[in-house]
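User: Please fill in residues for this 541-position structure.
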């Protein structure tokens, strides 16, 4: 009799059945052992992958830290002392490479970390801003696979909609514009043939439309892309147009655009306020094997800081020098506010003895620059104090920019005038304590000698304390200095540099935000010149 709880009580008595049962138990044991070994191997694999991802994450974080350190170093090179700064173009290139590397490292880190991906996604959403309202909106409506209720199969109704925008681009597309002019003849009358006249071309006998030429001009003078690179880009599209052909287009367009630029100058000379400046540019000097120095003179209007209604505009004018005759040729007869530096030739444009002429408003940024150069080595406490006082004036200007002229004048009279009066009194006191030939004394005398022009911004709300950002950073430096660095020789003759000035005038004016889309405005200007429309060009047209 078997004992209760004996595990062998249910075993069969038949040896064959017992053998089969034993074999099945062994097979089950082997299967469990194999599954255990497989799970163990999978665990080891997961552990190894985790360790690899951890190491990769640590390497990426170290790389990001190094790149951020390099980015901070580059920022110091941009915003730190002038002696530590890189040239502007080189700095932009360096920032581009570092920021692209940071983005690539972050994308790689996101791939292995859901937490990092969610964090970066939230940051992008918070800082991406909105696309401009003038862009066309192409809507894509994404519907569920079925709009029937999954429970009762009834028809569902829309209760809301999530909307998100993405920035898209249609790659540039070149095309052949085929113009057909059918001929019509009368069967009853011999020799009577009627046909529409051929439209005029920007370049007679040439291929390009005004839009095609405008595209080349904008790329050359707004984006500073040399013609040979544009020719290479066209070649990639299977269009063989050589650099010399593009150059002929640019030259023909410069000739056609001259009446527009001349009219633009006339409009600017009727403005209540203008900025004026001149900057050097190298010009080829054939026969001497070197370059000579020419000058790009510029006048600009930007009434946005005081809410003026006239659109911004700029005109460049090339001259062989920077004498009084060149200033007179560009600005002769102007009777408004002329914002400029203390260069002597501008004084010849001012009204004399109650006669007509410009009212000179001198730029405080030139005064500030005189003192700034002295503070590089931290050994000029008087210059540092002058900079602090001038900075207080600029801080007040930040609070009134964009307000009407009367409000700007009232704020300046109440807040800026006492500071300006104290500043000049303090400068006069400091001048008596300094050697007459010292650099600091020279900087102080520059300010004192131009006091009348420096104080005029206090009495007229339309005047600026100095050059505004769009004028200095965009019209002058963006229009000339960038192109001067990327393609240093403006031309070998007066017509060549005159053409450059015409294109820079039209390009820079069309680049102002109030002017609209740059290629479209350039196309309109070329089309207007080509067809010689009889209506004059009006301000804002």
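Assistant: Residues filled in for all 541 positions:
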């Amino acid at each position: 009799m078997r004992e209760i709880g004996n595990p062998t009580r249910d075993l069969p008595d038949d040896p064959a059945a017992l053998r089969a049962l034993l074999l099945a138990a062994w097979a089950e044991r082997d299967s469990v052992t194999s599954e255990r070994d497989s799970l163990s191997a999978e665990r080891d694999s997961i552990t190894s992958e985790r360790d690899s991802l951890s190491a990769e994450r640590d390497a990426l974080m170290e790389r990001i830290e190094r790149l951020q350190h390099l980015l901070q170093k580059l920022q110091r090179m941009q915003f730190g002392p002038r002696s530590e700064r890189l040239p502007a173009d080189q700095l932009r290139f360096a920032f581009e490479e570092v920021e692209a590397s940071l983005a690539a490292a972050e994308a790689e880190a996101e791939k292995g970390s859901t937490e990092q991906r969610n964090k970066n996604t939230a940051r992008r959403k918070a800082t991406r801003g909105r696309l401009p309202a003038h862009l066309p909106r192409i809507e894509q409506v994404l519907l569920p696979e079925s709009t029937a209720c999954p429970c009762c199969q009834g028809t569902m109704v829309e209760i809301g909609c999530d909307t998100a925008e993405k920035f898209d681009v249609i790659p540039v597309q070149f095309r052949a514009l085929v113009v057909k002019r059918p001929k019509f003849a009368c069967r009853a009358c011999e020799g009577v043939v009627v046909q529409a006249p051929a439209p005029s071309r920007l370049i007679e006998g040439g291929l390009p439309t005004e839009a095609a030429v405008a595209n080349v001009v904008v790329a050359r003078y707004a984006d500073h892309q040399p013609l040979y690179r544009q020719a290479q880009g066209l070649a990639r599209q299977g269009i063989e147009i050589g650099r010399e052909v593009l150059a002929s287009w640019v030259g023909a367009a410069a000739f056609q655009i001259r009446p527009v630029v001349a009219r633009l100058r006339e409009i600017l000379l009727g403005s209540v306020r203008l900025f004026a400046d001149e900057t050097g540019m190298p010009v080829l000097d054939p026969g001497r094997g070197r370059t000579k120095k020419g000058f790009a003179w510029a006048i600009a209007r930007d009434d946005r800081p005081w809410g003026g209604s006239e659109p911004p505009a700029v005109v460049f004018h090339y001259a062989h020098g920077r004498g009084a005759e060149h200033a007179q040729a560009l600005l002769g007869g102007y009777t408004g506010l002329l914002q400029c530096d203390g260069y002597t030739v501008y004084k010849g444009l001012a009204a004399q003895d109650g006669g007509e002429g410009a009212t000179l408003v001198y730029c405080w940024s030139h005064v500030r620059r005189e003192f700034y150069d002295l503070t590089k080595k931290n050994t000029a406490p008087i210059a540092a104090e002058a900079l602090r006082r001038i900075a207080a004036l600029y801080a007040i200007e930040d609070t009134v920019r964009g307000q009407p002229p009367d409000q700007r004048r009232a704020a300046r009279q109440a807040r800026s005038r006492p500071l300006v009066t104290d500043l000049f009194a303090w400068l006069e006191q400091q001048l008596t304590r300094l050697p007459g030939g010292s650099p600091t004394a020279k900087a102080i005398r520059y300010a004192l000698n131009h006091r009348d022009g420096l104080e005029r911004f206090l009495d007229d709300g339309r005047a600026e304390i100095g050059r505004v950002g769009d004028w200095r950073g965009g019209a002058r430096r963006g229009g000339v200095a960038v192109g001067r660095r990327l393609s240093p020789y403006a031309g070998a003759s007066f017509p060549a540099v005159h053409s450059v000035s015409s294109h820079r005038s039209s390009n820079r004016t069309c680049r102002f935000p109030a002017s609209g889309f740059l290629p479209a405005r350039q196309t309109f200007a070329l089309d207007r010149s080509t067809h010689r429309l009889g209506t004059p060009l009006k301000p804002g047209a």
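For context: Residues 183 and 189 are 15 Å apart (CA to CA).
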